[in-house]
Amino acid sequence: MRRTTNRMLLGLAGVVLFGTGAAVLFGGLDLPAKWHLGLPAGWPWSRPGDVLLPAHARTRWTHQGWWWPVVIAALAVFVLLMLWWLLSQLRRRRLQEILVDSGDGEGAVLRGRALAAAVAAEMESLDGVDGAGVLLTGSRTAPQVRALLALAPHADPGTVLQRLSHEAVAHARDSAGLDELPAEVRLRAVKHRPERVS
Where do the TM regions start and end (predicted)? Predict the structure, then answer.
């Protein structure tokens, strides 16, 4: 639901901005009247000299004492809302709970943090893994695993990924009763001091 609403708002904002930009560009090109495509006579931005707001509309309330504080407050709220929206796009949402089929028709709920902690602990127990961070994303019925593994210098990445898929992720999938559990894994090497060979 949140993703659909987000896409609708982004699409609406894109259409409004594109339409406004096209209208301004159309007026700035100073096209002949035959190219005006049947636009009404009072259509804004139909000539290069046209402005967004005429002078009487821009100065209508400027002599009022409340005008500038209201304008500044409205713009500040708008900027804060846009910053919040931008940060919400960059933030990965942590899955709070997973719906597990208990077989009785009612289902059960598994805490997302508990499953993520169990997967991380099993990943860290694999040979060659020095540390693991796990985040569950997706929906309650279709979770996804995002993991960051710190590999020891002697680790073989291929072997680690194979065991990760066949053990840690498979165990989590089976324990939650899921048909599938997609996993995105990022690997990084642990820095270590060079060893002196004599």
Answer: 66-87
